[in-house]
Amino acid sequence: MQSTEMLFFDHNPIPLFLLDSETLHILEVNHRVIEIYGYTQKEILQWQLFHFHPGNEHKQVEYLFNDNTEICPESMEFTHITKDGTLLNIEFRIQDITLQSRKCLIVAIIDITHRKKAETELNESRVRLAEAQEMAKMGRWDYYHKENALFWSDSIFSIFGLEKTEKSITYETFLDSVHPEDRDKVNIKWKESLGLQSSYQVEHRIITPEGDLKWMNESCHTEFDETGNPTHTVGIVQDITELVRTEKALRKSEERYKGIINSQHDMVVRLDTQNRFTFVNETYCKTFGKTKEELLGRSFTPVIHEDDLKGTLLAMENLSQPPFRAYIEQRAMTVNGWRSLAWEDYAIRNSKGEVIEIQGVGRDITELKAAESALRDALALEKKLGDLKSRFVSMASHEFRTPLASMMMATETLENYRHRLSEEEILKYLSRIRRNIEYLRDIIGKVLSLNRIESGKIPFTPEKTDLNHLIANWLTDYLEKNQLEHQIDFEPLQGNLIIEADRQLLIQALENLLSNSRKYAPEGTKIIIKINRIGDFVTLSVTDFGIGIPEKEMEFLFDPFFRASNVVNYHGTGMGLPLIKQIVDRHNGAVRLESEINKITTFHIDLPVMT
Hints:
five-stranded antiparallel sheet, alpha+beta, Beta-Lactamase
């Protein structure tokens, strides 16, 4: 590879292998491979890629890299083993290249270990949720009216005692399972809900194929098209047989009922119409570290997170309306701190249909929520890394092409026509090559500087600094060294202004801002450097009257390699502003900007003042 290619190969943040495409022997690796796998470069270059795979994957890897394979997927998941025995879940990204007439492969290794762990935890949580649904004897059904197609969740088949087959389930299939004495009631409720375009709730009995009698609670919601015809109904069915039996048993023996409830692993409570406890089981008491005597007659609301209280109370109020049930997620202060709880609440009504009590069954879903959040974070990080890679490739292809082409043309001219050129012309071409090398070195330096600052490898040595004097002295030196096409105005703040600052880093940030102003503002316009103080912070501002920044793109300016849409005709890497932000962050400061297109742009650096 050429030197520039090797530079990008070696400094790529993704582990890269260079392989002989025929033997799969490793020809070269970048520094990330050495960091992650723990081997030395000398050790790695003795092996094939198979060395890092467990034995049972060798055939799959060989198949993937086989030239005779008609279909070669873009990526596959494998396992890699590091020197210390750590197992990594990885994906391949494979690119064919030719180096000096030799067919090679560049293999990028994407570490998906954390993502796979999050997916596993989420799947386990979903399994637990399905088990909870099965334990609660609940299920969902969907009915598509035009097709007369009814779809049941697996738990409904279990509840109805039916085998799950490929044969379609219809509304008539459902009615056949309903107790003959309840079919008219169910059918009337169903048709009334369609006629009134409203939800409905009904309790009824079913008879299983084995002849068992069960009580069901059905509730549903229907969607209608523009002409008022029903299209899709979603329903919830719950086997309340045990509840009915329990309520009957309660009238015979309240103590026996309490014994059953207290044996449950879930939290079980009962509330009166004023949301005061009339019953709590042992699990609830243990969860909140209270005795039954401390809870009975008191409201449940003190333990609920203030941001979730309003929604919880609203759901409780709605229990007085069909379907007389509610699913509530809330955060509560338990003996183990704030935990996420999920509640299934059910309104208990008297013979007149009036709500007399509310029964709730709750369980801790904190781990489930955490797994879902971890998966979302992993996907967001993967997208961010993809965007960063795309911006880097775009910057590199744009900013490197021109200087490389210029150097190539100058080199070819010197090689082929040096004997015809004067000494002055030769020096001109050499000067062009030197300028382009310095430009490329500056780009690479910015990338490395940002990486070193982020990783803490650049020393940060703050010291007491008079900001007025620092900028005045720097500006004098800057004006002597640079021929400017702009007028630079410096407006210091009266009096001494002492801050804790790494002078070299702060000057680097200021030079980057001034460089941007000179680049994007017309020649002859003014650039203003100003110092203000507000409270315990001093603000260093750089203002120019150039092309401005689109408002929708301001939030992305400090992302590496991002460049605004109106600077396509200007050279740049998109590294200056991220570097400035890192420097200001090291000073416990902040960067702000204000801009109007084709009018004005001001960057503010806020730094704490010593007291």
